[in-house]
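Slides due. Your pick:
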Amino acid sequence: MDSTLIADAISAAGLAILVMDEAHLIIDSNPPAARLLGYDPDELIGMPVSAVLPLAPDFGARHAPPPEAARHMTGRDKANRQLPLLVRFASWTDTAGRSRAMVIMRDDTADREIDLIRQNDLIQSDNAIRGANIGVFEFDLAKQSVSVSDIWRRMLEVDPDEGVDLQIEWRNRVHPDDLGAALEPIRLCGEGHAERASCEYRLQSRDRSRWRWMRTDIAIAHRDKSGQATVLVGAQTDITDRKEMEELLRISGEQFRAAFEYGPIGNAIVGLDGHFLKVNPALCTLLGYSEAELLSTDFQHLTHPDDLNADLHQLERLAKGEITCYSLEKRYFRENGEIILGSLSVRMVLNSEGKPDH
């Protein structure tokens, strides 16, 4: 390549280009290079390239990297400020047998800022995942192989340096009754029936002393050209505490229902307007009404008029939060017209917002 062709190539290119001789001195440049480095075009001619780029001492036609090997480098402009650059090289021998090298440069500031933002996002995501104790894994459908995060290993109680087949270990520890459900999300996403899927299953501790509840959420991460899922990603969380709380609530609810339904004392759940919402058999027997008859009326109609105001006054105080419960004796009308004296105890139940509910 002769000097005329070099000059034509440089003038036509929109990239920042420097050309060097065997002594690593700049012998030609184009206007984009001058603007990028903060020089007038003529100022660069004759300068050592090391003034703007940190090249190796043996850089030249024989030692230049291949042109496809782009490098991230930090150059310096005329004001001696650091300049992030993406650099490619080309080298040749001209018609006179002299070694020449070309440097093609691009400002890399924006890309590095994007990389920094991505890195910060990854750090924040990693911190969030660690803080939430979420185990992350990736499943290659073609290879049927899995790669997992340290947190996932910790959930499985497997040290990072243990040579354990994680898939076999996991399968052996999933409760036999739950294995089908635990594998179902992989099937659904892998066969294209769902974009994402989840499951809950029991996982035995490594010492086989207890069962923990896990939740897995899986989504398709990559597809081939035909649209077939090839890679799945998943997140695993320990939901044992939630499951234990649900079980306690279930037991508590069953105990309440048993005490309510089968207790010897008349019980009722009453709306804020006084209508019966739920009654037990003991109350039906006490008042002589069927369940359907009580659910179609309110306590006001069953209360003796001379006792109603006292009851309503206490109920108002209860609704305002002045008291948490009250007890009183009052007279009731039975279905056959008989008047009986009853001992009443009332407690307000609040909703999730802390307001009176029933």
Summary: The mean pLDDT is 84.
